[in-house]
Each structure stands twice: as structure tokens, then as C-alpha cells.
């Protein structure tokens, strides 16, 4: 089975469209979204409707939870809160109800893969994993983890290899899973990459070959930025798209 996985679209229609077009060359059997469909961008309804149609499973992200009234986001900084408030007003009833029903995690049994937005240790807290010490917390649930856990949230591409007693960070490059190890992979962001590469990020996993591949694709950043400004969202949200941070 070939899985197409993407995360953190953040209402960026142009980036999502480019990623889905690029996926057409990958012979994908199932698509899965790791959350944060909304927040920051100018096209929340368009992205929610597309992902509802395309993805077999979508995981709840923290921005999704905020817009759906499933978490307190009063501690978010003002511009992020404003974007979430705008999106909550813009979303159709159907898209809002969809966000309200999204799960915190999902196991794809046929591929032996776990999906979640942040750390699998405390799912509802949306903890980040972007360093080995954060991945090390997952050793407490090592026996329950699938061989491959895919996450988003950090907007970074990261790979961590785990044994029962150790965690090693590997280069974020294409790799084949090794027997006797478990992996946590952060798949990067479609709609707001933060690794100084402004191309949209997505990944593929071939469960038969145990092969994992990182992918990037260019998209119309200026069109996406213009929609951010047209929605009267924070100007910096548009600028970040240009520099990939």
C-alpha cells in the first residue's frame, strides 16, 4: 500500500492544490491528513472541503480544535487568535461539524502506521516533537507504538529512530525502515513550511517496501499571500510564506 500523507495545510489553497497535483505521479492508494486544516491562511472553507473529499482520514490539529470549540486558545498570540476567530466565522456548518468530529489519532492497521498531530504521549495537549529529548518521552509508550508514527505540528521535516532505550535523530531524507526500530517522522507543512524552504512539503510511504520519501513542490505563493491580506489577517502570515519560516 502506498500512502500519501500531508499536514498543516493552514488554509493555503494554492499549496494544497500543488501538493495534490504532485501526488498524482506517486500512485497513491490512500491519502491521510495530519491536521491543522485551518489557521493562518486565506482559504479555510476551500481547504476543508477538498480534504474532506480527498483524505481517507484526517487527524485533529490544534488550530482545528480551536476553531471547532474543542480547546481554549486564549493564550495564543493575538494575530493567531484573530485568524482562528475569522475562520470560525467563515466556515460552513458542514465543515465546522467535520472539524468537531475529527479524532486525535488513528492507526492504519494495513500499513502498520500511527497518525497523530503532535506527540502521541499526550494527544490532547498537542506537544511538539522537534528534538530528541521530546521524542524520548515516547519511550514510555514504546510497546504500544506502531513501527512508524507520523506527525505534523512543528512544520519541520524530522526523523527519529527509537529502540526500547534510545532515541537518535536521523537526517530528514528518504529512508527505509529497519527491523527492530520504531520511527517518529514529522512530515513538514503544506501551507506554512518553517525550515527556510518555502516549497510545500508532503511525504509518501510504501508499506510493502517500508520505504519513506520526503517530497517538496513549488506553488503560487503570491496568490496565497494575497488571500491572507484580503482576509485582513496578519501581514506577517503572508511574508512567512515567501521565506518559509
What do you see in this structure?
With about 240 residues, this protein is α/β, with parallel strands linked by helices. It has one domain: Metallo-dependent phosphatases (Purple Acid Phosphatase, chain A, domain 2). Helix content is about 30%, strand content about 20%. The protein has helices at about 15-25, 45-55, 60-65, 80-90, 95-100, 130-135, 220-230, 235-245, and strands at about 1-5, 30-35, 55-60, 105-110, 115, 150, 155-160, 165-170, 175, 180-185, 200-205, 210-215. It has a six-stranded mixed sheet. Helix 6 links the parallel strand 5 and strand 6. Helix 7 (about 220-230) packs antiparallel against helix 8. The protein is globular, with a radius of gyration of 17 Å. The model has no long low-confidence stretch (mean pLDDT about 95).
How are the SSEs placed, and which strands pair?
Layout: E1 2-6, H1 13-23, E2 30-33, H2 44-54, E3 57-58, H3 62-67, H4 78-90, H5 93-101, E4 105-108, E5 113-116, H6 132-136, E6 148-151, E7 157-162, E8 167-170, E9 175-176, E10 182-187, E11 200-206, E12 211-217, H7 221-230, H8 235-243
Parallel strand pairs: 1-2, 2-3, 5-6, 6-10
Antiparallel strand pairs: 1-11, 4-5, 7-8, 7-10, 9-12, 11-12
Question: Can you tag this structure with a few keywords?
Answer:
245 residues; 30% helix; six-stranded mixed sheet; single chain; Purple Acid Phosphatase, chain A, domain 2; alpha/beta
Whole-number average pLDDT? 97
Strands side by side in the biggest sheet: 3-2-1-11-12-9
Terminal residue distance: 33 Å
Shape descriptor reads globular
- Report Rg: 17 Å
Query: Mind telling me the CATH class?
Result: Alpha Beta
Low-pLDDT parts are: none
CATH architecture: 4-Layer Sandwich
Write the element-wise H/E pattern from the N-terminal end onward: EHEHEHHHEEHEEEEEEEHH
- The percentage of residues in β strands lies in 15-25%
Count of helical segments? 8
Amino acid at each position: 500500500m502506498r500512502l500519501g500523507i500531508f499536514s498543516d495545510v493552514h488554509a493555503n489553497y494554492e499549496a494544497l492544490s500543488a501538493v495534490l497535483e504532485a501526488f498524482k505521479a506517486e500512485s497513491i492508494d490512500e491519502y491521510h491528513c495530519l491536521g491543522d486544516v485551518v489557521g493562518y491562511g486565506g482559504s479555510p472553507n476551500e481547504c476543508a472541503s477538498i480534504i474532506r473529499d480527498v483524505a481517507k482520514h484526517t487527524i485533529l490539529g490544534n488550530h482545528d480544535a480551536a476553531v471547532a470549540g474543542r480547546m481554549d486558545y486564549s493564550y495564543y498570540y493575538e494575530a493567531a487568535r484573530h485568524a482562528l476567530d475569522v475562520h470560525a466565522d467563515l466556515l460552513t456548518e458542514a465543515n465546522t461539524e467535520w472539524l468537531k468530529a475529527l479524532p486525535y489519532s488513528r492507526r492504519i492497521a494495513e500499513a502498520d502506521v500511527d497518525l497523530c498531530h503532535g506527540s502521541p504521549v499526550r494527544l490532547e495537549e498537542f506537544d511538539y516533537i522537534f528534538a530528541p529529548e521530546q521524542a524520548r518521552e515516547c519511550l514510555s509508550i514504546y510497546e504500544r507504538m506502531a513501527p512508524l508514527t507520523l506527525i505534523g505540528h512543528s512544520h519541520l521535516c524530522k526523523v527519529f529512530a527509537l529502540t526500547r532505550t534510545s532515541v537518535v535523530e536521523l537526517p530528514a531524507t528518504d529512508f527505509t525502515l529497519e527491523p527492530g526500530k520504531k520511527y517518529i517522522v514529522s512530515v513538514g507543512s503544506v501551507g506554512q513550511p518553517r525550515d527556510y524552504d518555502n516549497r510545500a512539503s508532503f511525504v509518501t510511504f510504501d508499506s510493502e517496501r517500508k520505504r519513506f520519501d520526503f517530497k517538496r513542490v513549488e506553488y503560487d505563493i503570491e496568490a496565497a499571500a494575497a488571500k491572507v491580506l484580503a482576509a485582513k489577517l496578519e501581514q506577517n502570515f503572508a511574508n512567512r510564506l515567501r521565506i518559509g519560516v
